Here is the input.
Amino acid sequence: MRRKMRILAAALCCLLLLQMIPVGSAAEPRLFSDVSESAWYYESVSEAVERGLMNGTSQTTFSPEKTTTRAMLLTILYRMDGQKSVETDISFPDVAKDAWYAEAAAWGLYHGIVLGFEDGSFRPEEIITREQAALILLRYANYREFDVSASADLTAFGDTAQISPWAEEALSWAVGCGIFRGSDGLLEPLDGTTRAQIAAIACRFCYLFRVERFCAHGVTVGYLPLDNRPVNNLRPKWLAESCGIRLLMPDETLYATRLDGQTPNPNGMTHGDRAALLQWIKENEESCDAFVISLDQLLSGGLVSSRSLRDDDLSFEYAAMDYLAELSTRKPVYVFDTVMRLATTVNYQELGEEEYDLFRSYGTVARAPLTGDELTIENIVKGYRYDENGELIPTSLDEELLQNYLLARERKLRMAYRMLKNSAQFAFYFIGIDDSVPQESIQTNEIAYLRGRLGENAQLFTGTDELGIMLLTRAYLDLCQWTPTLSVRYFGGKEDGFADSFDVTTLRESLGQHIAALGCQEVETDGDAEVLVLTRGSSEAEKTEFLQAWMENDAAGRATIVIDASGGQRDPASTVAAISLKHLLGYSAWGTAANAIGIGLSVGVSRLAWLTWEDEKQEADTEAFAKELVFAFVKDLAYCRRCREQLTDLTPEGIEQCLLQEPLTASILDTLTGQELTVSNKGETYTMPRATLTGFSAPLARNYEIAFSPDFLPPEE
Here is the structure.
């Protein structure tokens, strides 16, 4: 059984309880003249009304002692399910089409929650007995696919002889899970249920099965990015805002990476200020409900510098790890790290393309595989310089450069081991395999060593740049306490091959690992959303089929996540022509396959959770989601597929001119303008405003990744 995340523990338990209480008008309980504050049912009645499950019998009365009818109970469950209307021709003969409970009755009959009596009638105004209520609640729980395995021995009650045979299982379940409690040693199965009693039962059901109203607004997450590229700061910011979460980040100058030729940060550093970042976390502990932290940033000053630091003294690093472990006893702390890639970074510390190629070639050589007791850090480090036959690996690298490279590898490995020793304390721990090769390499033994020490709340998989946005999504799903199901369709037939030269797993394996890391479940068919994946080597017919599936899903109202892992083989203009947003949850075609998978899934799954669970949906949430879509389409299609290679002027003016002069940019903005986004399960929509692009920059002074922000123009009068 999957381990409950620590998001449910310690301080955030209090937060989750607060999330069960609606905001806004719900802050003050509605009072009725016939519901005394001293009554045992006062809290239940107040909560049932605030949840929208029950109403008063008048503006000032609730009638707590009035018995509940069959129509009343079914209407409560219908509201609990979000009042999802059904299209059906079947109905009860004694339910008028204009009856106040008609939709609830149709919904209940359609889903098998109520079946009617032998004569086919529903008898809506008949008082519902406690055993009837238990059976209807059990059927509703089965319909929602909740765990209904609880049971209880009913012989402890003095009136079990009165229980109808058809109600024994339902009452055993209701008592076993705590929804029914009995009174004075009696179950009273044939008695009616008062409105006060049904309010208490409904609230217990909501708490037990996590169907309470949920609001992420008011939650603050402290986030320490991997570096200052948009994939690590802008896009996580939009994702958090699209969920209603406030994302708190340190000033960019404290975590920015500056390559050779760039102006250093104000503190004179070309990487993150580790001491200042640790202090930032400590200073913001009280104001944050949870933390998502890049260990590469906190312990090494960023991804780039993590490939070059080689200090023997790890006292700062170990002290920072110990603090995070301590912090995790008070707040949910999510951390992510990487296995050092095969090569160093071009244009950092005066290393160029030549050194990059030499390091990558050196790292790609297979080392002797270690297993069992031989798989230790010491043996891994000893084997760095030798191939699988024990021969010294030749290289033209300068010896000092090589020694620094190997020391940096050892440092990262030792820190990861130290973190894994305490990983059970953290909410979750991602370790991404940075740029690798689909064969044995210098990383192979490192990966095997770390994989053997993963706990239930840690995962290791191919990827790096997408880890921050993924872990934010994981935290959001944990907050929702939900496991979405995803079905997958591949196009191109290459899903069982390596999608990129940087991967250590097949495309199918990589997608499965990313789905599991997010806390989702992959199913064959009929998932909560469908993931469409275009693979490399696709024929023109297969590419067309991929886009056609996207359009068909939209027409059918099927929630869809679109991932182009083909390496940009599809003509971007044809993709733009296929864009349909109403049921699109996420899209990505950026970077390596792992990047595209992680980004597309994260945006899509978080949107799915928001649509499913968020009660206090706000237009600002959807505006942030819309910004993410605009950014993804413009950057992945117009920029990466059309004009990136022509960009030589990396000033804001040069980037703006390059991107806005590309005709596909205008085509994308035209296509998106006026499209509708679904914002509720009732079919409500949001119309995409016209977007304009601002804030152009190249964070690492290279054209591989640029930054910009979509802004929405006000509607024309």
In short: The two ends are 57 Å apart (CA to CA).
